[in-house]
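Researcher: Let's try something more involved. This one mixes different molecule types, so please make sure each is placed in the same coordinate frame as the others.
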Amino acid sequence: MSYALRLAAEAKRGLAVLPVIVQEEALDLLEESSVRAEMTSGSSPLIQEEVMDLVVHLESKRYYVFMVVRIDHRSRMVRVDSVGHAVRT
Amino acid sequence: MNQSTAAPALLDLLPGGFGPTDDPARDNTLADRAERLLGFALAEHERIVDLDTGMDHLALCYADPQGADAMRRVYQQWVNQADELLDRVRGHGLREHLSDKYEELERALGRTLAMLSISLESLERAEKEFQIGHTQTLEEVRRELRAAAGR
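Model: All components are placed in one shared frame. Result:
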């Protein structure tokens, strides 16, 4: 079973400014991370600070998304603190 | 080493240009230099990331604003140099020729810019939001964002 996943309002604000397609890809990646967290639970510290990133090509632009995540193996929770991005052509 | 003077000197190894010249030997030399500089910039990025992650992602540590700020300046200096290098590689018409390394550096640059867009204040606010339970599940956020987009 995957870990619970919770986002800070700050992280939601970071997602909200992105195009919908980019939002969806970022959320999918977060969802996968909650499944992966289960698999790494035995070999990792109780609380893991992680960063995740993705690139989405959209209408001749590249959206780079960077997410700050904390995995708490004790409470079986992945928390998403903040989402930042950069756009380049 | 004084990095603020070293960075422009490094970029001077590949002067700004306007496409291929009439001299194939010169073009080959420039392409070779550009490739080496792209590799150098990538290696430098890896070292900076190793340094940062080795210090528990210091650049994102709002509890140590001085340390985080210093680490961010290191990233920013690298960003400025890498961005200018990509410009020059493009200017010499070498983007296609060196596409693997060019794309790798472009991605490292974009990732770093995205990271730097996250302020320390934002991370501190997120910590407080978790403390007071001002958080949502992924499904709730997905639903709200879809609704806001009218889907």
